[in-house]
Amino acid sequence: MVEPIGHVATALLFAVPAWFLWGRRPAVTFTVLTQVTSVLPDVDIYLREYFSHPLLQHHGITHTIPFMLVVGARVLTPFLNANRLIHSDSITPSTTFVFTTGAFWAGGISHVLVDLLSAAPDTAIAPLWPLYRGDVIVNIVAYDSTSVNLGLILTAVVLHVGLYRAERYPYETRWGID
């Protein structure tokens, strides 16, 4: 498991394309929404305190891409929509759904992928379970590497601050959902 700051930083990096697709307000919103799910897979650490089930082991079911897809599309986005937290009078509900769900997916999938990069053989992850039950081990960086985690967060923050401060983006094809 990567330190929480590494998960936050990686989700920020996954959100960078939003600045090239949309204007400032939607990009900030997308970035904030990615943070909601950037640490969500680690809920298994707390759930196993109350429930005893093999799927709730750390790097278990909550560390799978199918889990993040279902939670984003069927739980988090409908919850925000039901409470009018993502409602818009100028954007269609289907566009709002895709935008919000995409942000949740970016945050959650970034968590799973960065854990793959730091998973030692004894903490392997099966990211495509139940579609593919095999473990995947990449392990190219130590999860507790201070220099890597600080480098990631500094890079992500500098990128987002720079993109936020930019008045115009040179991309004329960006989508307009301001």
TrEMBL record:
Protein name, as recorded = Metal-dependent hydrolase
One Pfam family per UniProt: YdjM
Molecular functions per Gene Ontology: hydrolase activity
Keywords per UniProt: Hydrolase
Q: Which organism is it from?
A: Natrinema zhouii
